[in-house]
Design brief:
The protein is of the alpha+beta class and 90 residues long. The strands form two sheets. A two-stranded parallel sheet has the order 1-4. Strands 2-3 form a two-stranded antiparallel ribbon. A hairpin with a 5-residue loop joins strand 2 and strand 3. It is globular and about 40 Å long.
């Protein structure tokens, strides 16, 4: 299980580096200054489909709320990782 978590965090890291690079290219080409903030947490979530006319898949729970708060209060251009997630990956 630990190996899977480590592999996923490495994959996320590579994706985030790619996103930052792509965003830098978009900013250069469009003369904008978009920034990216990311919050990462791990733990249990509840997932499901909501809506009858326009169904949407969504996830809920303390894990999602914590990651959302970390993202919304984070420094532009950075990724915040929950201490327990960092310790597991270390």
């Amino acid at each position: 299980m630990f190996e899977l978590i480590l592999l996923l965090l490495l994959l996320f890291y590579c994706c985030f580096k790619c996103l930052h690079t792509k965003l830098d290219n978009i900013n250069k080409e469009s003369f904008n200054s978009f920034t990216l903030r990311i919050g990462i947490s791990h733990g249990p979530v509840v997932a499901g489909v909501i809506g009858a006319k326009k169904p949407q898949y969504d996830i809920w729970g303390d894990t999602v709320n914590l990651a959302s708060r970390m993202e919304s209060t984070g420094v532009h251009g950075s990724t915040q990782v929950r201490d327990r997630s960092y310790t597991k990956a270390k």
